[in-house]
Amino acid sequence: MTQADTQTQAPPAAKLSLPTLTTMVVGSMVGAGVFSLPRRFAQETGVAGALIAWAVAGTGMLMLAFVFQYLAVRRPDLDAGVYAYAKAGFGEYLGFFSAFGYWASACVGNVTYWVLIMSTVGAVAPALGDGDTVLAVVLSSVGLWLFFALISRGVKEAAAINRIVTVAKVVPIIVFVILALFYLEPSVFADNFAGADYAGSLFNQVKGTMLATVFVFLGVEGASVYSRHAKRRADVGRATVLGFLSVFAVFASVTIVSYGLMPMAEIAELRQPSMAEVLEHAVGTWGKVFVSVGLIVSVLGAYLAWTLMAAEVLYVAAKDDDMPRFLKRATPADVPVPALVMSTLLSQIFLVITLFSDDAFNFALDLTSALTLIPFLLAAAFAVKIGWGGQRGQVLIAALATVYTAFLIYAAGLKFVLVSFIIYAPATVLFVMARRDQGRRLFSPREYVILAVSVAGAVLGIVALAVGWISL
Predict the structure, then answer these.
(1) Which of 360, 306, 348, 281 is nearest to 119 (CA)?
(2) d(CA 395, CA 400)
(3) Rounded to two decimals, what is the model's pTM?
(4) Does the pLDDT value for residue 291 go beyond 90?
């Protein structure tokens, strides 16, 4: 480490309490995804499939929440949980991929927020389309860099804003559920129970919704990412479980009650945010306006939380010498500006890519979920590894979380696995830069194997895109 690096290190971070950590987890999870759920689920499944999907997702994500709780207590020496657990369990290169994948998923997820907010405004400003027009991308880019300027002022200020926004954005979601229950038509709900003809078998219906459920639960690991800021390490695990339980019922309710208001085939054709369109059908224009305003507040708050987490992952990885050392620099206000710049730039790149996608929102949503699966899988497998020979209950929970995450990779399908490889493989340049900063050997024999697999997957993905086997 050079003298310049030492001088740019931040002072000890402000410590976060259990309520603050829990609020940050809830703030991370309650975002764009919940406002898009009615249409996304109606495109894939009926009521029966949705109930099974939420049961699977709820159980699986609860197991993951318990995994993060267990690891926070068992390994209090590890910061930035998702990345640190992968490195400790399976080596530096896979740990690097976990850090990069989690960071990239946060950046791509931020793109969904801007697409959705522009689609919302697009209902009254047709030039914005579904959030994927040139004008929409330009305006989103302006917002993206304005938030960069805000966050650069300090983590404490941004976290305080996030607490206020989290409370504000939950209100329209709860109001939606209550009104939907009041206007629910039992006959419509019954007609939607088995699903429409286009939905396919019950297994395919459940499988088709898995990435959507992953997306809305992203953030369940948020407290572990901020573990270095926690007053007590035990609070990290408690905040994870409390945050998850706080939002699970709300997410499932938004989906299920929508089936009682409109035929699923009609819901599947709504523009995003579909929750606003569903409420408009039930109560009129004011319902759409009410939800749309809530969405804008929700999306901006979630964007703030995820930008903070993305920068935090890069920063901590750089401090552990797994990213280039320029990323370990932070301001006196504890803001890792170089990491924040990279996060904003990657989001900017994917904003431009949405111009070439058939369905910008769903593509960004699914890719966000797919990129997160490898970090989640490695964290769950690490919990199995360190728990083996210890408490059987903890090992069983970790094993269930591992199986669930592996199933999610299968549910993602070949398309998103290959696109993920295209993103992962070039990231190795950052790993090489970090090794060179330290004057170390670039790859071990085992790491060369991992490199070969990632490059082969990326080449196959590029070929698949070029010849039309898969599309964005």
Answers:
(1) 360
(2) 9
(3) 0.77
(4) no
